[in-house]
Amino acid sequence: MTAGRPAPEGNAAVRTFKARRGRLSATQRTALEVLGPGVDLPAGPLDALEVFGRVAPLVLEVGPGFGHAALAYAAAHAAHDVVAIDVHTRGVAHLVATVASTGPPNLRVVEGDAVELLAERLAPGSLAAVHLFFPDPWPKRAHHGRRFVRPDVVDLVAGRLRPGGSLLVATDHCGYAKQARAVLGAHPALRGGTCPRPPWRPVAGYEAKALAAGRPVLELRYTRTGRDSGAVSPTNAAANSSRPTTT
Ligand SMILES: C[S@@+](CC[C@H](N)C(=O)[O-])C[C@H]1O[C@@H](n2cnc3c(N)ncnc32)[C@H](O)[C@@H]1O
Q: 159 by DSSP, 3-state: which?
């Protein structure tokens, strides 16, 4: 937390998603009800040791959709642990079924609101990275305040990142890109800008659609500085200092 400012709890009341009431197939319902409990998180604050059986760099992917990036990242980074959270029930059911049948073992899947997870269940300074790939663009001006990359949510994310931890954002929406650069660039505990496309991310989902339509993709990486040390306990800071940088 930045000195002199209120606790960074985001504003979950201004939702970054539209509630969708799509019907689930029997297979999707089974995936969620039967397989879900084996690959999701127990209720309450996240205890990495209990969930993963170890304490490793923890990466949160917000809005994985059908999970191509989360699956690829977790498979390519066996020494990291990954939590992927989405409100899109069908995407979550698909990802749950995949993880339950073939892994990888370092990936957990949650159906829910990432803002609530960040605010209520993740400790300050506990994340090595947050991945936000092709967030809902909310193109109408009246809806710009619903974008995930907005000041209150970015402050929350910055507080949950350990010093040296990064927020990765990719978007094909130029209005979103402009807002993201402005909001992230203005945060006192974040430094960064454009970056190369992560080599481990498969071209799939919304990125594939964007490229097929000829829209360029902007990649951003903002890293948390050590200045805002109030959000990180001495224990976390010591543990974090020996961990590798997440990409
Ligand atoms: C445009 S889709 C992109 C999906 C995927 N990342 C891809 O690139 O194909 C954005 C996703 O973010 C999810 N989302 C939006 N706000 C969210 C939130 N607060 N918590 C969890 N998921 C969220 C939506 O449900 C949706 O699945």
A: helix
Whole-prediction pTM: 0.90
The one catalytic residue among 136, 152, 155, 228: 136
Domains, the chain, ranges and CATH?
26-241 (3.40.50.150)
Q: Sheet containing 127-133: give its strands across.
A: 107-111, 81-86, 58-62, 127-133, 161-171, 218-224, 190-194
d(CA 61, CA 129): 8
Is the CB of residue 137 below 6 angstroms from any atom belonging to ligand 1?
no
Residue-wise pLDDT for 66-75, tens only, equals 999 999 999 9
Q: How many CB atoms lie within 10 A of CB 208?
A: 12
* CB of residue 10 inside a 6 A radius of ligand 1: no
Q: Average pLDDT of 13-20?
A: 86
